[in-house]
DNA sequence: TAGATTGTTAATCGATTAACAATC
DNA sequence: TAGATTGTTAATCGATTAACAATC
């Protein structure tokens, strides 16, 4: 086992890609895979894969490769996906609704365990079998349902407030989709997605290639 | 004007954040902003902002700051958001449906100009006022409606095929949400979003902090 | 002028790539 | 054993941070 060295964010972000491709490889009935072949399939260099994995331990066999099932089990545990995480979606607008219906979450260890909104027209409705609760019930529900992660899909101006309430109730992970700077205490993890960035950068590159 | 030096992807990805915050600052009636204050609001260092902007020109006044309106106009043009981009969404599932209803696209220069699906139950339906077309109409519609960007929200196994058809029809930008490696020709720009990565990394950090 | 703030160069930091010894 | 492939160290590359001259 490796001593605690800093693992880069870039490495952590690649682990899910490895895991997903390993699952597919396993479905194909392949039992051993080389970093070369795995890299080719994901679009990552073999050296990168070996280095990433080496930050957590020695999972391969020299001269042989990686045992698919064993590597999957290891990555799964490193990512903490072997246990179940209960997630709460705050804001059942278009995006929140789409995420509430996203089946793939289950297959990687996440359960949508609560939905919140502040719109009386939405409260009481069922989405994917889950009742939409009043945002005012956040505090009690976090405890009752052991919610671990809050997904923020409310309008930007309400995002920080929603985060604050989740955090006050004991949620330690925030997955934020509101395009605004969110502040959380040191012991809370925040991951923000900003969808308009990707689209804007496409605009940038398209503009440039059109000119040149 | 600057000579053509390589601009890093990280820089391009921050420009939309600058633009968005400048718009808010403008709405507050502020006419001049320093990199210090802008950085504080976005969560980026002032040096970073100055360096990013300097790769495109000299937009500020020494000892003064940046004129909000002027800087907005410049960033807008750099990003190519001053013109309109027509986007096509391929795959009207939960996510495609949510994106089709996403109003913010309009406000930054994008128009959802076509929706495609291969499900007969969806073809002919209207989403946000736009008719869902048969995927087989891609080729002709790209030309008719001058579609620039294709958004891929189909299941992974169909993603590459959808991309190939869009590209064959002349689309030069792909915004991919399918969690799979996509290949495009050299003259086509690809931006991929992989939502499960963010969630999995949250799981990783939550697991670790629980242990320590 | 003095104070403020930019634009830019130099220093640092971090991540990727290359090379190769270890070993299955 | 010979060939293959890992794990790891060293070299390179790229991005961020620090420092400061220029100048409004």
What distance separates the N and C termini of chain A? 52 Å
Adjacency order of strands in the biggest sheet of chain A: 6-7-5-4-8-9-10
CA-based gyration radius of chain A: 20 Å
| CATH topology group of the largest domain in chain A | Rossmann fold
How would you explain this protein's 3D organization?
The structure is a homodimer of 212-residue chains. Chain A has 9 helices and 10 strands. Chain A is globular. By secondary structure, chain A is of the alpha/beta class. Chain A has 2 domains: 9-78, Winged helix-like DNA-binding domain superfamily/Winged helix DNA-binding domain (Arc Repressor Mutant, subunit A, Orthogonal Bundle), CATH 1.10.10.10; 85-197, Rossmann fold. Chain A has helices at residues 9-27, 35-42, 46-54, 68-78, 94-100, 104-107, 138-144, 156-169, 195-211, and strands at 32-33, 60-61, 65-67, 85-90, 110-117, 126-127, 130-134, 149-152, 173-176, 189-192. Chains A and B meet through α1, α5 and α9 of A and α1, α5 and α9 of B. Chain B binds a DNA duplex (24 and 24 nucleotides) through residues 6, 8, 10-11, 34-36, 45-48, 50-51, 53-54, 58-66.
Quick summary:
The structure is a homodimer of 212-residue chains. By secondary structure, chain A is of the alpha/beta class.
Blueprint (SSEs and pairs):
Two copies of one chain form a homodimer.
Chain A: H1 9-27, E1 32-33, H2 35-42, H3 46-54, E2 60-61, E3 65-67, H4 68-78, E4 85-90, H5 94-100, H6 104-107, E5 110-117, E6 126-127, E7 130-134, H7 138-144, E8 149-152, H8 156-169, E9 173-176, E10 189-192, H9 195-211
Parallel strand pairs in A: 4-5, 4-8, 5-7, 8-9, 9-10
Antiparallel strand pairs in A: 1-3, 2-3, 6-7
Helix pairs in contact in A: 1-4, 2-3, 7-8
The structure holds a DNA duplex (24 and 24 nucleotides).
């Amino acid at each position: 086992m490796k001593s605690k060295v800093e693992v880069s964010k870039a490495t952590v972000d690649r682990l899910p890609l490895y895991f997903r491709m390993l699952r597919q490889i396993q479905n194909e009935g392949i039992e051993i895979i080389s970093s070369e072949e795995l890299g080719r399939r994901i679009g990552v260099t073999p050296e990168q894969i070996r280095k990433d994995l080496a930050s957590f331990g020695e999972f391969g066999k020299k001269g042989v490769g990686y045992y698919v099932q064993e590597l999957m089990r290891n990555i799964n545990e490193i990512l903490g996906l072997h246990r179940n995480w209960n997630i709460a979606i705050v804001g059942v607008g278009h995006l929140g609704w789409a995420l509430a219906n996203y089946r793939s979450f289950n297959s990687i260890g996440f359960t949508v365990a609560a939905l919140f909104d502040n719109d009386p027209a939405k409260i009481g409705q069922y989405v994917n079998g889950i009742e939409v609760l009043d945002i005012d019930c956040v505090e009690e529900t976090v405890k009752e349902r052991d919610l671990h992660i809050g997904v923020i899909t409310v309008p930007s101006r309400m995002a920080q407030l929603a985060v604050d309430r989740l955090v006050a109730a004991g949620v330690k992970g925030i997955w934020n989709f509101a395009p605004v700077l969110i502040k959380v205490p040191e012991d809370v993890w925040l991951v923000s997605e900003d969808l308009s960035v990707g689209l804007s950068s496409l605009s940038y590159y398209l503009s440039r290639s059109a000119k040149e």
